[in-house]
């Protein structure tokens, strides 16, 4: 039973329609894993409908600039790295203007004649805050070019698990594009009821063996957490990771789900990160961290397995898109769709709190949810 089940959902909640809502601003998003951001290369990216060029500075620090030259709009990602008086710059391919990778400031305009009065300081490309943390590259998508993050990107309880190390190390990741609005991707990620149908496999899961589940949830920072429980198939976990298995799944805005499995000896963290590219396209990464040497062999079959899983989701999102294009009203039922209701409430509260310049107040209440999956 949900203890905060809306008595009259239609009255309390705004209509749940096909078109996704606002993409959340003033938030950190996972841009990519650290390994994907190869040095010496300009990476052409798009986040929340904004073209972004990313790369690494001379000292390896990541940078992100708006991928539009302020002169006449040629993407800077089509240009090249070039040294300007000992400073790393990107040279635009059209007229060779150069911009500092450290802050986007203009460093050189080749067509200017010596002593021609012109203030380069006036020209600047938007510079996004980026951080390399836990082997991921995070980008801050502010609502204005001036918006500054008020803290570092989120961390997960068991992300820092390598003995003595302060940073998580990505052991394995897989990426897929989902042809849908971010909201539908997140809702799909949170949805327990699709698993036996979309992710059925002759090996481990069929839609004929639904089991009743009862899960306890509590609000946590910017989201909610499914509280620790013994996994159903703990002998397997025991064998892989050790005794006293605990599983906890945390969701937080904008679209991050962290599943941590710990035992008295080892820990594992699976992070699913959804980042919007445009209103109709997003990318998802399944990123895994662990410290158990016994899991290293898992890598051998993790890739095809994870790719299959992501492909299954990508296919259902594409199919859903066919129906959504007619803008039908959508439904949500207790308790299997409750996490989706919470996601929508969290988003609404975040947008409201931002607009009213006040602290975010988590609208989720502790609850026990029951569903068959
Ligand atoms: S368009 Fe970039 S230098 Fe002219
Ligand atoms: Fe799925």
Kindly report the average pLDDT value. 90
- SSE run: HEEEEEEEEEEEEHHEEHEEEEHHE
Number of strands: 19
Percent in strands: 25-35%
In DSSP terms, counting alpha (H) and pi (I) runs of 4 or more, how many helices? Answer: 6
Q: Give start-end ranges of low-pLDDT stretches.
A: 1-11
- Termini separation comes to 16 Å
Shape: globular
- The CATH topology name of the largest domain reads Naphthalene 1,2-dioxygenase Alpha Subunit, Chain A, domain 1
Secondary-structure-derived class = alpha+beta
Please write the CATH class name of the largest domain.
Alpha Beta
Largest sheet: 8 strands, antiparallel
Strand line-up across the major sheet: 12-18-17-16-15-14-13-19
CATH architectural type of the largest domain: Alpha-Beta Complex
3D structure, described in words:
The structure is a single chain. This protein is an alpha+beta fold and 373 residues long. The chain has two domains: 9-17 and 160-372, Naphthalene 1,2-dioxygenase Alpha Subunit, Chain A, domain 1 (Alpha-Beta Complex); 27-132, Rieske [2Fe-2S] iron-sulphur domain (Rieske Iron-sulfur Protein), CATH 2.102.10. The protein has helices at 9-12, 182-190, 195-198, 234-241, 299-324, 338-355, and strands at 27-33, 43-47, 50-56, 62-66, 80-84, 87-91, 98-100, 106-108, 127-128, 130-133, 136-141, 172-178, 212-220, 223-229, 246-252, 256-262, 267-276, 282-290, 367-372. The longest helix is centred in the C-terminal third of the chain and has 26 residues, at 299-324. The structure holds FE2/S2 (inorganic) cluster (FES) and fe (ii) ion. FE2/S2 (inorganic) cluster is lined by residues 69, 71-72, 74, 92, 94-95, 97.
């Amino acid at each position: 039973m949900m203890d905060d089940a809306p008595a009259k959902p239609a009255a309390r909640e705004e209509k749940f329609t096909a078109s996704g809502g606002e993409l959340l601003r003033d938030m950190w998003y996972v841009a990519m894993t650290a390994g994907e951001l190869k040095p010496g290369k300009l990476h052409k990216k798009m986040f929340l409908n904004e073209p972004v060029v990313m790369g690494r500075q001379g000292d390896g620090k990541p940078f992100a600039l708006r991928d539009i030259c302020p002169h006449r709009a040629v993407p800077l990602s089509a240009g090249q790295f070039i040294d300007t008086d000992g400073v790393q710059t990107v040279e635009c391919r059209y007229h060779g203007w150069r911009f500092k990778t450290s802050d986007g400031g203009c460093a050189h305009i080749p067509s200017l004649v010596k002593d021609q009065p012109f203030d380069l300081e006036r020209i600047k490309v938007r510079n996004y805050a980026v951080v390399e943390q836990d082997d991921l590259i995070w980008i801050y998508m502010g609502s204005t070019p001036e918006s500054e993050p008020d803290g570092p990107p989120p961390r997960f309880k068991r992300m820092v698990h390598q003995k003595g190390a302060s940073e998580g190390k990505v052991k394995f990741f897989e990426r897929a594009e989902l042809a849908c609005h971010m909201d539908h991707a997140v809702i799909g990620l949170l949805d327990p009821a699709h698993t036996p149908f979309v992710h059925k496999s002759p090996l481990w899961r069929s839609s004929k063996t639904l089991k009743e589940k009862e899960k306890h949830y509590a609000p946590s920072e910017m989201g909610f957490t499914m509280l620790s429980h013994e996994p159903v198939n703990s002998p397997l976990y025991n064998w892989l990771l050790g005794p006293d298995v605990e599983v906890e799944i945390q969701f937080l805005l904008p679209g991050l789900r962290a599943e941590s499995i710990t035992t008295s000896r080892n820990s594992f963290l699976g992070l699913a990160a959804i980042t919007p590219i445009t209103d109709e396209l997003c990318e998802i990464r399944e990123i895994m961290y662990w410290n158990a040497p016994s899991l290293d062999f898992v890598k051998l079959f993790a890739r095809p397995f994870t790719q299959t899983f992501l492909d299954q989701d990508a296919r259902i999102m594409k199919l859903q898109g066919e129906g959504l294009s007619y803008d039908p009203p959508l439904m949500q039922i207790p308790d299997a769709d409750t996490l989706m209701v919470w996601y929508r409430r969290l988003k609404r509260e975040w947008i409201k709190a931002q607009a009213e310049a006040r602290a975010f107040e988590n609208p989720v209440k502790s609850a026990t949810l029951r569903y068959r999956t």
